[in-house]
Amino acid sequence: MEKNVTQTAPSRGLFHNRVFLAIIMSGLFLQVGIWVRNFAVLLFVMDQTNGDAFAVSMISVAEFAPIFIFSFIGGTFADRWAPKKTMVWCDILSAVSIFVVLITLVFGTWKVVFFATLISAILSQFSQPSGMKLFKMHLSPDQVQQAMSVYQTVFAVFMVLGPVIGTFVFQSFGIDISITITGLAFLLSAAALGFLPKDRPLEEVGESTLLQEMKSGIKYVLGKKELSLLGLCFMAAGLGIGFINPLSIFLVTEQLGLPKENLQWLLMVNGVGMIIGGAVAMIFAKNVAPQRLLVFGMLVNGIGIAVMGWSTNITITLIAEFFNGLMMPCIQIGINTLILKKTEEAFIGRVNGILSPLFAGSMVITMSFAGVLKENFSLVTTFEISAILFIIGVLVILPIYNQKQQTKAEVLGSK
């Protein structure tokens, strides 16, 4: 009974909520560490290998492979373990691994930098679903979407500032200081999480094994219409993004006939759109159902991708890119809010662990075929197929478009 009171009791404003503030502060430190690490490792590897494509691609493997291998396992353990303790220890262990990498870097081989990305990426598969669980436990239902809006805005800001910060730190101080800053950022994140309230006693998990709990997680997702449709929507979006992500540079050089350096303007406009979109979403978060945010965001993105594929005018392309960025927070907020609102607390980790690999896996599949599709057909065809996949994602989620949001009274009455 204590669980229900904690979970649904109304609180003061969101920005007075201790859990929310601790997680956001932790997220700020993590973003600084991640972006400094990512760009330091990228630029360092390029320097050491003279831009070897295989070595550079291994950085992405170190970042994305843990999503496939550890996401579901991490989510299952997140449902078993105390969330505060899990998050704090993941940050501490990430920091320790970073400092071990630093020591090895000084006295050993430079190739160890790949582990700086790999180990913290693995640990994040245990930490991230625990953060989602804390939101579910300590925020009232009407605060969840606003909290997700703020959280996504933090990510959007770092999409713009992160590359600048990471590049500046590496070029100014080198790899050793960059890795040190990353480790300190993870420790500061752990310190911020220290302000979270003490973990409450865990419910008994009974005699069920890890495998049984993983199976029950899959059964839970398949048994909930909203989550099943969300999984299919995830796949469609991942497939669509995978087609266009590796080909953005050709949009600049072939469609627009501009030097490759102009890609930075597309990325900057997209990032600015994401920041504005996140801020607008914060204002209207309480008034729009998450599934409507998701449908609207997917639809506009589909149209934007189609326009970018056809456009040979830099102004039109930049406008389409801006709207794509503007709608991205709607998609992310809609997805995360739906997961939190439609999933019982005991299954948050496993649901997150099932849906995340669907998106990442779909994206990697189409990234593998993007170049082949472009060479055999055209860049325009590739972008239009991506746009169609986004529209398919919209059609998949439409059955729950008009689903009413639960009120506080309904949530309390269902307990």
From TrEMBL:
CDD domains per the UniProt record, alphabetical: MFS_MefA_like
Ranges for domain Major facilitator superfamily (MFS) profile: 19-405
Family matches, as Gene3D superfamilies: MFS general substrate transporter like domains
Domain of life: Bacteria
A Gene Ontology term for the protein's cellular component: plasma membrane
Topology in the lipid bilayer: Multi-pass membrane protein
Keywords of this entry: Cell membrane, Membrane, Transmembrane, Transmembrane helix, Transport
Residues that span the membrane, as ranges: 20-41, 53-74, 86-106, 112-129, 150-171, 177-196, 229-253, 265-285, 292-310, 316-339, 351-373, 379-401
Protein name: Transporter, major facilitator family protein
Organism (species): Neobacillus bataviensis LMG 21833
